[in-house]
Amino acid sequence: MSSSDTRIKLNGIKGQLEAIEKQCHSSSLVIYAPKQEHGQFFNDLCQIYLDASKRERWLIRDAVSGRKGVLNCLLGHVYESAKQVRSSGNRSWLRIGLAAAAIQTGSNDYRDSLMALAELFVTAEEAGIDPNPDFEAIGGGIPADFHKHAVVRGRRKRSR
Q1: DSSP calls for the chain
Q2: In this structure, are residues 81 and 94 in contact, taking their beta carbons and an 8 Å threshold?
Q3: Which pairs count as long-range contacts for 13-19, CB under 8 Å and 24+ apart, including other chains?
Q4: Which of 75, 80, 81, 73 is nearest to 22 (CA)?
Q5: Contacts for 77 with CB less than 8 Å, ≥ 6 apart
Q6: Taking a C-beta distance cutoff of 8 angstroms, is the pair 61, 100 a contact?
Q7: Rounded CA separation 34/15 (Å)
Q8: pLDDT in tens, 19-56
Q9: First and final CA of the chain: distance in angstroms?
Q10: How many CA atoms within 13 Å lie on the side-chain side of 138?
């Protein structure tokens, strides 16, 4: 992607984020999934993130920074992606969920992020997908050795 293409896309993203922020709920007690009309935007944002360079990924994370409603919806999108992994067994939903988590990493309560990631990780395992390579590749503050975290072991126990 050329830098002018990136600027055009990021300018468009910023405008959309501003509009969506006005419609998204923010709470420290409730994680909201994106409204149905915003679902495709979040899927597209995650795909752009997955295809982006390190610098472009930083710019995307910067664009969502401080937008509490959008950040909450990104966390909710991780859970929505886990549901899609469960129903479809499709690895692309794992990657979209990971991108959503990476975009909002550090912006919400890290414990909420860990719980969402554990849900995504274990759901992928239950769907017959090895999530380790994708977790190792995503970066963005997500530990490459996530499978070793206690929150993953705890989530696995709930499945039994």
Answers
A1: --HHHHHHHHHHHHHHHHHHHTT----SS-PPPPPGGGHHHHHHHHHHHHHS-HHHHHHHHHHHTT-HHHHHHHHHHHHHHHHHHHHH--HHHHHHHHHHHHHHTTTS-HHHHHHHHHHHHHHHHHTT---HHHHHHH-TT--TTGGGSHHHHHHHHHH-
A2: yes
A3: 13/45, 13/48, 13/60, 13/63, 14/63, 16/41, 17/63, 17/64, 17/67, 17/70
A4: 73
A5: 33, 34, 42, 46, 96, 97, 100
A6: no
A7: 17
A8: 999 988 887 778 888 888 898 999 999 999 999 999 99
A9: 45
A10: 30
Closest CA to 99 of 142, 156, 152, 50: 50
* Span 90-118, average pLDDT: 91
pLDDT digits (tens, 9 = 90+) for 2-13: 444 544 466 778
Separation between Cα atoms, residue 93 and residue 124, nearest integer Å: 9
Entry field: residues in the chain: 160
pTM for the full model?
A: 0.89
The mean pLDDT value of the chain amounts to 89
